[in-house]
Backbone:
């Protein structure tokens, strides 16, 4: 086997930010090579250079020993045989699987698309990848894991011999993740090379051969996975020791006072008969598998979606009719959405505007909004949350995922809300940023705020929560009120209990 990819002295800058600094390393043919580093370390930027998204950079890229300079991603696919599987699942929901896989490259007979050939070619690929759906299935009927497999099938369709996977498991269940890993291992045996970006250490050690570590835009080291440890990798990434596991560093701040009470909430679809209480100073965890209905419950509480049944009480007072997110904000409750790119911030706005958008009344000078006050508030949170780059006018959409999450956090902290719902707060976030978010949560409850944390990561749910609520198929299956009862096996059992009942596996 030779060298599949070689980066030589890559430098890349954006206005005011030097993102990549003299990056040089190689990726061998037929290996799964991890790219690791904190959010903002430069991993995604390097992949964008490889795939022709960014063409204005210094340095050289070689594929299989030949220097390349792709004009755009289409050029990279056609002439470089390289494809990228994005963190966000990118499909056209109303088209068939076959149409999605071949989109823009459909087989034709004369001027017309040859649908029979399209579906037979794609079905052959799906069979090779052990997928349990067909080319003619409509994409909106598939699960998140199946949709992610479409991206893999697309890479195979283009005969790609180098595939980049950017946080591919962020929306997948454990079972779907293992199915993806099986496909990756199968393609590796066929000589396919993978560049793999993930913040999940267990995935890196389970799947990858080597890892190149980035820190502050520089290449720190390339390590053999079998010869290193998780602590060594984390230390290389952040330059210090950071716990990758959520754990409480301060005593519980939970009190008897109930600040939020939910009674028999339901929408007749995603969740039914949900009742619970949130106490002042408490971190209340919600755990469950994908489809458990946790997010839908939270969206109803903050008025983003309408609930059909039940009651919600804030500080003892029932919420009135016409409840919406604006009224919820005024009442002192906010939510950090799991879908940060589509629901967390304005893609067209700068950091200063995204941070201030929900608290504009704080920056008024007479009848006008003071830009100086907005800037001072943004700069305070740049320092408090360690946001990079520390540029108020920088477009939030151009930042790394972890720093985008911090901007959204700053937006809600600027509002002085008393109750904050965190929906998958560390999704796609590196270990150092996770530690910062966990520290911030403890600081918030110490200040008297109350938090609900929705997480699909069991160690995170167990490590953070004062009490833990487990949901399955839209219902609460267990409330664990004492941390000494937080047993991972038992919690997982509660998370699948109703699934097992439905399948007739439990009495």
Residues:
């Amino acid at each position: 086997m030779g060298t599949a990819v070689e980066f030589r002295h890559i430098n890349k800058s954006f206005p005011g930010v030097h993102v990549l600094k003299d990056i040089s390393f190689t990726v061998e043919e037929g290996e799964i090579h991890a790219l690791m580093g904190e959010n903002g370390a430069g991993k995604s930027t390097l992949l964008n250079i490889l795939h022709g998204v960014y063409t204005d950079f210094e340095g050289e890229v070689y594929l299989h020993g030949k220097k390349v300079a792709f004009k755009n991603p289409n050029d990279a696919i056609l002439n470089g045989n390289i494809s990228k599987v994005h963190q966000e699942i990118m499909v056209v929901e109303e088209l068939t699987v076959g149409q999605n896989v071949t989109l823009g490259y459909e087989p034709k007979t004369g001027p017309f698309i040859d649908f029979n050939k399209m579906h037979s070619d794609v079905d052959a690929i799906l069979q090779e990848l052990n997928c349990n759906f067909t080319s003619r299935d409509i994409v909106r009927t598939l699960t998140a894991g199946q949709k992610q497999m479409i991206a893999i099938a697309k890479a195979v369709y283009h005969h790609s011999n180098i595939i980049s996977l950017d946080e591919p498991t962020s929306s997948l269940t454990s079972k779907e993740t293992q199915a993806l890993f099986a496909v990756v291992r199968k393609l590796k045996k066929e000589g396919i090379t993978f560049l793999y970006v993930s913040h999940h250490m267990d995935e890196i050690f389970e799947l990858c051969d080597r890892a190149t570590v980035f820190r502050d835009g520089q290449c720190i080291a390339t390590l053999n996975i079998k010869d290193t440890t998780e602590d060594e990798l984390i230390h290389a990434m952040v330059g210090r020791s950071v716990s990758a596991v959520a754990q409480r560093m301060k005593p519980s701040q939970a009190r008897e006072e109930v600040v939020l009470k939910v009674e028999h909430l339901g929408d007749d679809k995603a969740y039914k008969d949900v009742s619970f209480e949130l106490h002042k100073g408490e971190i209340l965890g919600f755990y469950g598998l994908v489809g458990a209905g946790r997010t839908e419950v939270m969206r109803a509480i903050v008025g983003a979606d309408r609930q059909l049944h039940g009651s919600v009480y804030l500080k003892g007072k029932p919420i009135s009719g016409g409840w919406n997110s604006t009224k919820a904000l005024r009442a002192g409750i906010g939510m950090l959405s799991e879908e940060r790119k589509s629901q967390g911030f304005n893609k067209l706005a700068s950091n200063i505007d995204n941070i201030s958008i929900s608290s504009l009344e704080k920056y008024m000078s007479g009848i006008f909004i003071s830009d100086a006050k907005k800037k001072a508030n943004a700069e305070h949170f740049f320092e408090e949350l360690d946001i990079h780059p520390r540029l108020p006018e920088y477009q939030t959409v151009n930042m790394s995922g972890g720093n985008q999450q911090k901007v959204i956090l700053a937006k809600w902290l600027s509002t002085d809300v008393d109750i904050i719902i965190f929906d998958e707060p560390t999704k796609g976030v590196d270990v150092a940023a996770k530690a910062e978010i966990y520290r911030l949560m403890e600081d918030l409850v110490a200040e008297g705020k109350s938090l609900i944390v929705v997480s699909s990561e069991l160690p995170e749910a167990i490590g953070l929560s004062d009490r833990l609520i487990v949901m399955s198929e839209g219902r609460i299956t267990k409330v664990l009120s004492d941390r000494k009862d937080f047993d991972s096996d038992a919690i997982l059992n509660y998370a699948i209990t109703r699934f097992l009942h439905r399948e007739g596996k439990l009495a």
